[in-house]
Amino acid sequence: MTNTARAMTRVAGVIGLALAASLALTACSTDDAGEGPDKLTLQTSWLPSVQFSGSYIADDAGYYEDEDLDVSILPGGPDVANDAVVAAGNADIGLTNADNVARANAEGADLVIVAAGFQKQPFAILSAPDDPLNKPKDLIGKRIGVPSADTALLDTFLELNDIDKSDVTVVPVGFDVAPLVSGEVDGLVAFYTEQPTAYTAATGEKGVTMLVGDYGLDVYAQVYVVRRETLDDPDARDRITRFLKAEKKGWGDVVDDVQHAVDLTVETYAKDGGLSAEQQLAQATLQLDLLTSPDTEKHGLFWISDDGIKRNIATITALGISGADASMFDTSILESLADTK
Amino acid sequence: MRSATLTESLALSETSRIIDDERRRVRLRARRTSLRRAAVLVVIVVALLVVWQLAADLALTRLGVAASPLSIVRSIVDDAGLYLNATAVTGWVAVRGWVIGNAVAILVAVLFVQIPALESLFLRLALVLFCLPLVAVNPILQLTFPADTARVVLTALSVFFTTLVGAILGLRSADGGPLTMVRAWGGSGVAGLRFVRLPSSIPAVMTGLQVGAAAAVLGAIFGEFIGATRGIGVLLINGLMGLQLDRIWSIAVIATIMAAVPYALFGYLRDRLAPWGASISTAAPAAGRRASRGATRVLRPLAWAAGSVVIVLAAWWAYLAAFDVSSFVGKSPTDVLAYLTSVDDAGENRAAIAGALGTTLLHGGIGYIAGLTVGVTAAVLFVQFPVVERIVTPVAVAFRTVPIIVIIPVLILALGRGLGAVVAITAIVTFFPTLANTQSGLARVPIDGINLMRSYDASRWTTLWRLQLPYTLPAIFASARIAVPSALLAATLAEWLATGDGLGHYIVGSRAESDYAGLWAGAAVLTVVSLIAYSVVSLVERRVLSTYSPTHVS
Question: What are the entry keywords (chain A) (predicted)?
Answer without folding.
Answer: Iron, Metal-binding, Pyridoxal phosphate, Signal, Thiamine biosynthesis, Transferase
